[in-house]
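re: ur question from yesterday

yeah so i grabbed the chain u mentioned. its 342 aa long if i counted rite. heres the sequnce exactly as i have it in my notes:
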Amino acid sequence: MNKTIFVVLLLLVVPSALPATELLPNLKFGKPTMEELSMKSYLPDTSATAVVLCHLTEVSYDWGVNDFVVIYSHKMRLKILKPEGTDYANINIPYYYKETNPSREKITLVDVSAYNLEEGKIVRTKMKNSQANEERIDETYMQLKFAVPQAKAGTVIEYQYKCRSDFFGTLDVWKAQRDIPTLYTEYNAVIPEYFKFNIDKRGWERLEPTSEQIDMTIFSHGSTLDCRAEHLNFKGHRLPAVKSDAHVWCADDYCTQVKLELYGVNIPGRIYRSFSRKWEDVDRLLMKDTDFGTRMRMSNPLKNEVAALQLQQFSNPVDKIAAIYCLLKSKVKWDDHLMDAK
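ran it thru and got these structure tokens back, copy pasting raw so excuse formatting
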């Protein structure tokens, strides 16, 4: 056989023999690699202004003063590739804090650092936690804001924080994708046997899920509580960006994500409580909601005009819809501005 043909066939059959050029995930925070700092672009998406190199999320349960609490731990490493990507060094972390509700969340910064390559050496710039600011978004939510120092094209930024939440029955939705590419992301949740969750995985991108039963110890008021727990793990590799689209109302809804929905609580010494609901229960909850319910109870501003349509004369629902549509069309005028999908 001709040697040239043999070499070509060998490369086609054994691609692993080729030199590895893809960036591998680095899970050691506080120690960015020279490869991460020297990278100029992200090969799977060269248009990316930044890329998430590694995002680790851990969820665990602990005992608070009178009840369970949930501890979220986030570790993020991100590479700024272009000057436009410096916006990702401005971090906003929303959390629930309503003055009239004793149940709330608390954010604690662990570390915020920027790493730059200067004259062949890695230079770290650490942000003081006092430089972060808290501000109120609305009556329900606060946010923690900070800017990673010395962020520019070529910088690797890292930040770590924890969130302590009193809402042990409502776990945050874990989103594996962002509006920039993600090289590696991982979600770890350890859930005591007392909490029963349904797992809802959405999105198109592939995740690697595993689940196992483990032993768990919870410390409470100087004593320990031993129980079984379920350890859930999801890993995502080389996930593309979820980019906004003028024809999509909320592109974020289409990202790959994992949602844990509580359907029951069975804590020793308490009565079992089921959270599974019928549609009638959902209707009542929605109508009690201060936002959704208030809007639904609003009076119809076109009540007289709708009455004049005499919809009862139409036996076909399609004809009723057409009549209402024509009425609304005559009452609503377009101001020549498109609604911002963001």
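noticed a couple things. Confidence is low (pLDDT under 50) at residues 4-20. also The two ends are 60 Å apart (CA to CA).
anyway ttyl
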